[in-house]
Design a protein that fits this description.
three-stranded antiparallel beta sheet; single chain; Spore Coat Polysaccharide Biosynthesis Protein SpsA, Chain A; Outer Surface Protein A, domain 3; about 425 residues; eight-stranded mixed beta sheet
């Protein structure tokens, strides 16, 4: 079963428009990570796009799609009905497929049970007041027309749907008829007619997810879900779907809706793309020099080498105290201790970054400053550090000294002030 994706720019510049992300850079980082994670598991990953999408994803970023189809240059659709471009892509398929959105990343292949299923979706959803308000607002527009099976779904206490971040299957006949239902829904309600007030309605979830669930129920179809649990329409939490640092522990990431505006999420995406595919990270970062001051400068090589060491293993910030005690450490050569006291005995440390956060500041206390001094220009083990630091503690505090040193080391590791060799 081939994998396909849709990138429709709606005539907007991908270098200036974020398509739901707070900055266009994060949209491109997401597309790169999505495509590259898919190609790690599948030989056939095809892209459906327009000329602007082809230029940025294929010509500039050189993402490794197996085939690319430029079909959306004359696509007549208002930009805010973006899900209709996916419907068009579904309708063109002549062999079994799975369509995967560009904000989904797969650390491992999809389960075998979905690869030969008649119909596949990411997961079933339970509608809360969020979908209820969305449907009610849509129906308040004058002269709205919906089919009987969709109205039946609206009248239920909970409006069920399917998340279509992943969608497809082998039942191409049903999928085509579903696409025709969507086209009829759009046409009957004049949703692409800018002269009609109904065209401003927020309808993507309705015509893609809710209509699909309603039509499948009407036809008596069974949907195979990637995720076997049913999720509330507001249940796509950052910890469950967007914790990129837990890459090895998850089977699927989906940066749904408001998660695209969470700063820690897109910084984690940058770090993952950099650690796994640094060449692609650099191509994207170089397009936004105002956010990546080190890219393209003489400092970049040493900076990247140092940062790669900091990110080694991706989970260095999750080391247990016992694991920390068995490593060899060195001070991060890029770390700067700023020349002023913040408060009390603490100092402010600064660590520049090749990521869009532009660097970070954090406080370091007397014990941390001593550790950084001992690790400046040389490596050391935990045992050696403890031996050097014991004289700093009163005799009656020696028993607790190792624990305090280990905790301080963990803090410095977390912020990248020291690195593991």
């Amino acid at each position: 079963m081939k994998i396909i994706q849709t990138f429709w720019t709606a005539g907007q510049d991908p270098l200036k428009h974020g398509f739901g992300w707070t900055h266009p850079e994060y949209n491109l980082m997401s597309w790169a990570l999505s495509c590259l994670s898919l190609r790690e598991h599948y030989d056939e990953v095809e892209l459906y796009t327009d000329s602007a999408g082809y230029h940025i994803l294929i010509e500039v970023l050189q993402l490794p799609y197996s085939k690319t189809y430029v079909i959306f240059d004359d696509f007549q659709c208002l930009p805010h009905h973006w899900a209709l471009s996916k419907i068009k892509t579904y309708s063109l398929q002549t062999e079994p497929f799975l369509h995967i959105d560009g904000d989904i990343y797969l650390p491992r292949p999809l389960p075998e049970r979905v690869l030969n299923a008649p119909l596949v979706a990411q997961n079933r959803e339970i509608g809360t007041t969020y979908y209820r308000r969305m449907m009610d607002a849509f129906l308040k527009h004058q002269n709205i027309s919906i089919s009987d099976f969709l109205r039946k779904r609206w009248e239920e206490q909970s409006i069920s749907s399917y998340n279509m971040g992943v969608f497809g299957g082998e039942d191409l006949d049903f999928i085509r008829r579903y696409c025709l239902e969507v086209e009829d829904f759009m046409w009957q309600n004049h949703l692409n007619d800018v002269n009609d007030n109904r065209s401003c309605a927020n309808a993507n979830v309705i015509f893609e997810q809710i209509l699909f669930a309603s039509f499948a129920e009407k036809e008596g179809r069974t949907i195979q879900s990637i995720l076997e649990e049913t999720i509330d329409d507001i249940g796509y939490t950052t910890s469950k779907f967007c914790d990129i640092k837990a890459w090895q522990e998850k089977s699927l990431f989906h940066i749904v809706g408001g998660n695209k505006r969470v700063r820690d999420t897109f910084i984690a995406i940058e770090q993952k793309l950099f650690s796994s595919h640094p060449g692609y990270f650099r191509r994207i970062a170089s397009l936004f020099p105002e956010k990546h001051q080190y890219i393209g400068t003489t400092l970049e090589v040493s900076f990247v080498e140092q940062t790669q060491k900091v990110l080694t293993g991706e989970s260095y910030t999750r080391l247990t105290l016992d694991e920390v005690s068995h490593q060899r450490f060195r001070r991060n050569s890029m770390l700067q201790i700023l020349p002023y006291t913040q408060e009390g005995n603490t100092r402010t440390a600064y660590l520049p970054s090749i990521f869009s956060c532009g660097g970070k500041r954090f406080t370091v206390g007397p014990l941390g400053l001593n550790i950084l001094h001992l690790l400046d220009g040389k490596e050391s083990t935990m045992e050696s550090l403890c031996h050097s630091l014991y004289p700093c503690f009163a005799p009656n505090m020696r028993e607790m000294a190792k624990t305090w040193i280990e905790k301080e080391m963990h803090y410095l590791l977390h912020h990248g002030a020291i690195i593991i060799f």
